[in-house]
């Protein structure tokens, strides 16, 4: 199939591009590079040996998106373009609402206009709120009331469900992603977040001296060591879930499906710290910090529906996550090239089409 991946120059997106191409699909990327990097796509090309066109376009720009649907003969969409809390920029609720909902509207419009009837979209464990029933199963209520991001994820799901149920032939699948970590084992692609990023990126930043210490949010949670517990899932396992969902969404006998994409195992933040120390052989400085509003003490998935319907089960461990993440971060201590002081000099604006030539393996230090 020819699959449009929105957000394909981002963290989950670049790994999903590689997995889709390796599964035999043709892939086209649209990404506005607001938090992505063209090197992620060119390296995905190098890893797979296949050309992956990159359109530098805001998905919420309906005219620009229409031009892509006009020319690329898209058969399915994997939707990963969105804003998520990374701590790296001054993102507010308006950023989450505008992008996460706005891009969903335009994408659905174009899909309907062009008769593209398969969509798999990323959602988040944040829809389960800050005091989730664990393990969280897909049938729990998702009216998260404690974070703007969680609310946009929950609203986006509602929009997708309503449109899927009203539009004959349209099949939509949602993957509720838990905490992604790790990187491609080559060390070529990974999370590029020099000033923020997820837990693993922050751990690497401490070890590399970019960050003084890791803030562990609270030591009084009702967990064995008092730190919060999360469901850490390797980004390559997540990518495999998107590949499986693209197939399954066309097979299941319902217009709208939701699957949890998590490991099903809770791991405490301090356990991750210790595993990272064991893998890297380096000490990680950390301190107990205030618990931000809306932080769950324990969050982990019940992934049994995804196993049953997608035939998907994560196969990588937290030690794999740490080892693969560290390899990426050691080889790319400043992330992808070109990111200087937050500037993204290649940004071409809406409608600009960027063609990057693969250039061997330029990422190794
Ligand atoms: N990484 C995680 O742990 C995690 C967990 C739960 C859910 N998710 C969800 O998965 C998706 C991908 O997350 P990620 O970690 O890869 O984030 P990311 O920021 O690395 O990737 C998102 C990509 O989308 C692009 N983008 C943003 N707005 C855009 C727009 N309007 N038009 C075009 N491109 C746009 C960015 O430039 C970036 O490349 C998001 O929806 C996120 O909420 C991620």
Low-confidence stretches: 339-365
Major sheet strand order: 10-6-5-4-1-2-3-13
Span of the ends, CA to CA:
36 Å
The CATH architecture term is 3-Layer(aba) Sandwich
Helix content: 25-40%
Largest sheet: 8 strands, mixed
Structural class: alpha/beta
Q: Please give the radius of gyration in angstroms.
A: 19 Å
Number of domains: 1
Q: What is the element string, with H for helices and E for strands?
A: EHEHEHEHEHEEHEEHEEHEHHE
Which compounds are bound in this model? nicotinamide-adenine-dinucleotide
- How much of the polypeptide forms β-strand, as a percent range? 15-25%
Q: How many β-strand runs? A: 13
How would you describe the shape? globular
The CATH class assignment is Alpha Beta
Domain NAD-dependent epimerase/dehydratase: 3-254
Organism: Isoptericola cucumis
Pfam families: Epimerase
Enzyme class: isomerase
Q: How would you characterize the overall build of this protein?
A:
Pathway: Carbohydrate metabolism; galactose metabolism. Its cofactor is NAD(+). This is UDP-glucose 4-epimerase. Residues 3-254 form the NAD-dependent epimerase/dehydratase domain. The protein is globular, with a radius of gyration of 19 Å. The chain has one domain (2-189, 231-265, 298-316, 337-354): NAD(P)-binding Rossmann-like Domain (Rossmann fold, 3-Layer(aba) Sandwich). The protein has 10 helices and 13 strands. Residues 339-365 have low confidence and may be disordered. The two termini are 36 Å apart. An 8-stranded mixed β-sheet has the order 10-6-5-4-1-2-3-13, sandwiched between helices. The protein is an alpha/beta fold. Helix 1 runs parallel beside helix 2 (38-48), helix 6 (199-207) crosses helix 10 and helix 8 packs across helix 10. Residues 6-7, 9-13, 30-36, 58-60, 80-84, 99, 103, 122, 124, 177, 179-180, 198 line the site of nicotinamide-adenine-dinucleotide.
């Amino acid at each position: 199939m020819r699959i449009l991946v929105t957000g394909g120059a981002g963290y989950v997106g670049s790994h999903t591009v590689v997995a889709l191409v390796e599964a035999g699909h043709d892939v086209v990327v649209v990404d506005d590079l607001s938090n992505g990097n063209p090197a992620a796509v060119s390296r995905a090309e190098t890893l797979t040996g296949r050309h992956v066109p990159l359109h530098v376009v805001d998905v919420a720009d309906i005219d620009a998106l229409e031009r892509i649907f006009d020319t690329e003969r898209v058969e399915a969409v994997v939707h990963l373009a969105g804003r998520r809390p990374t701590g790296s920029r001054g993102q507010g609720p308006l950023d989450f609402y505008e992008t996460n909902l706005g891009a969903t509207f335009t994408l659905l419009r174009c899909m309907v206009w062009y008769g593209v009837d398969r969509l798999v979209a990323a959602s988040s464990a944040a829809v389960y709120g800050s005091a989730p029933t664990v393990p969280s199963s897909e049938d729990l209520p998702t009216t998260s009331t404690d974070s703007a991001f969680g609310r946009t994820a929950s609203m986006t799901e509602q929009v997708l469900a309503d449109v899927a149920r009203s539009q004959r032939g349209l099949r939509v699948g949602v993957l509720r992603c838990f905490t992604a970590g790790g990187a491609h084992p080559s060390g070529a692609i990974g999370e590029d977040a020099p000033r923020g990023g997820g837990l693993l990126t922050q751990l690497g930043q401490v070890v590399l001296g970019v960050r003084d210490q890791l803030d562990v949010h609270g030591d009084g949670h009702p967990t064995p060591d008092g730190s919060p517990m999360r469901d850490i899932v390797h980004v390559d396992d997540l990518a495999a879930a998107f590949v499986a969902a693209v197939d399954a969404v066309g097979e299941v006998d319902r217009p709208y499906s939701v699957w949890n994409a998590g490991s099903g195992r809770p791991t405490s933040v301090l356990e991750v710290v210790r595993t990272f120390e064991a893998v890297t052989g380096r000490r990680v400085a950390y301190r107990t910090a205030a618990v931000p509003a809306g932080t769950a003490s324990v969050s982990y998935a019940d992934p049994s529906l995804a196993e049953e319907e997608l035939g998907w089960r994560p196969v990588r461990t937290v030690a794999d996550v740490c080892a693969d993440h560290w390899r990426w971060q050691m080889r790319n201590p400043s992330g992808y090239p070109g990111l200087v002081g937050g500037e993204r000099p290649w940004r071409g604006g809406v409608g600009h089409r960027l063609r990057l030539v693969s250039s061997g393996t330029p990422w190794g230090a």
